[in-house]
């Protein structure tokens, strides 16, 4: 039997971009102790990020995210937590204030067609 492929409608407001950026996450654990850990993004979008980190967090928990490249910080909320095979946690964060352009990027909207080069143009190597 062949493999079936399904197209689905993108539910995100903006598409994710696979980008690995160093960030620092500040928060409080279950016992009320403050923590500050370094993490890496796996992907980002205009409303948040997916991180790989070691510190356990809970869905609904509020964290402060600091971009190490720009030193900008933003308040976030944990919306997804999953332990991966390597022992790290995949943590999905959304920005509390969705109007911020924290990543200083323009993201494609869902359903946008990718840019294509004209048939006659070739990139120089």
Any chance you could write out the topology, listing elements then pairs?
Elements: E1 22-28, E2 34-45, E3 48-53, E4 62-67, E5 73-83, E6 89-95
Antiparallel strand pairs: 1-2, 1-4, 2-3, 3-6, 4-5, 5-6
| Class by alpha and beta content | mainly beta
CATH class of one domain: Mainly Beta
Number of strands: 6
Which oligomerization state do the chains in this entry correspond to?
Answer: single chain
Shape: elongated
Level-2 CATH architecture of one domain: Beta Barrel
- The CATH homologous superfamily of one domain is called predicted glycosyltransferase like domains
What's the arrangement of strands in the largest beta sheet?
A: 1-2-3-6-5-4
Radius of gyration: 18 Å
What is the count of DSSP helices, taking H or I runs of 4+ residues? 0
CA-CA gap between termini: 42 Å
> Uncertain regions: pLDDT < 50 for 5+ in a row?
1-10
Helix content: under 10%
Can you summarize this structure?
The protein is mostly beta strands and 125 residues long. 0% of the residues lie in helices and 39% in strands.
Task: Explain the overall architecture.
This protein starts with 21 loop residues before the first strand and ends in a 30-residue tail after the last strand. It is mostly beta strands and 125 residues long. It has a six-stranded antiparallel beta barrel. A hairpin with a 2-residue loop joins β2 and β3 (48-53). It has a domain at 22-95: Thrombin, subunit H, CATH 2.40.10. It has strands spanning 22-28, 34-45, 48-53, 62-67, 73-83, 89-95. Mean pLDDT is 83; it is low at 1-10. 0% of the residues lie in helices and 39% in strands. The protein contains no helices and six strands.
């Amino acid at each position: 039997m062949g493999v079936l492929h399904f197209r689905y409608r993108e539910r995100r407001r903006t598409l994710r971009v696979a980008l690995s950026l160093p960030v620092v996450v500040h928060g409080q654990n279950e016992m009320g102790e403050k923590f500050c850990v370094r993490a890496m993004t796996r992907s980002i979008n205009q409303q948040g990020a997916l991180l790989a980190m070691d510190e356990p967090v809970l869905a609904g928990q509020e964290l402060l995210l600091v971009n190490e490249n720009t030193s900008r910080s933003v308040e976030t909320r944990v919306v997804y937590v999953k332990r991966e095979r390597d022992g790290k946690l995949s943590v999905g964060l959304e920005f509390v204030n969705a109007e911020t352009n924290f990543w200083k990027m323009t993201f494609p909207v869902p359903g946008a067609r990718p840019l294509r080069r004209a048939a006659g143009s070739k990139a120089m190597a």
